[in-house]
Amino acid sequence: MHYTGQTFRPPREAYTPLLEVTVGCSYNQCTYCAMYKDVTYRKAPEEQVLADLRELSVYADRIDRIFLENGDPFILSTEELLEIADRIYEHLPNVEIITCYASIVDLKNKTVEDLKRLRKAGYNQLYIGIETAHDPTLKKIKKGCTQADEYRELAKLEEAGIDWICMVMAGIAGQEDSFAHADETAKLLNTHQPLSVSPLTTTVHPGTELARMVADGEFQTLTEGEILEEEIRLLEKLDLKPRALFFGIHSYNTAPVIGRFSEKEEMLAKLRGVLEGMSEAERNARFVRTGY
Ligand code: SF4
To answer: Radical SAM core domain: from which residue to which, for each copy (predicted)?
Structure first.
């Protein structure tokens, strides 16, 4: 298999074959992100994709799902994505779901009709890092979209019947806007419901614009106590379907919690319990998180 630079995948795709169809991220401007700083975005060569599919075809009987790499393969045109799906089915006929990271920016270049064609071709359960629906924060982190874009593009996805999985960044709005970020984000997700929500604590990676802002005193990370308060606020405000998953067990997170929304009160009790059990020093600590 061919992989260029560092390769990322969601924790839940640990057992899913990863097929590189793009290198890097087409956008690569979010202030907090260092994932693809060392690589230039490009489409992977067709011969490489075909060679990898031939390699995977040995296990064709066991492969019913595939994850496309890298940062945002959904930026490819509808025709290119349909072509990739055709090649996948030629080699892996049992595949039922083609998934990948996608962004609101990627969705802008597709109509509802395009998205319906992609859904029919197996594209589903896209991982979208919304991070926040708080407009001033979206601007500050240079996410490349507004809250209005998020509402419009997620409505298109919903109309096309494509399910999505949401990543939210705890602490990204700073102390002042922490609860506004939680409230606005919950409102968006209650309107356009994802299958799952993953809150990830904001990490300041060296070399990013966010790291520069922290060094210059323009941004301060939340304390451990404030991060938990924000996560509790988000969960309180979220009103998702009972089967939707709250996937708060990323290694960055202060208190691991996972469960269906039918168990929302139990999850809240757990998070409140951790917060109440923290000493003053623990609440006020600002831990440095490294790696991914
Ligand atoms: S967060 Fe996602 S969209 Fe933003 S630069 Fe990183 S990979 Fe690209």
So the answer is: 11-241
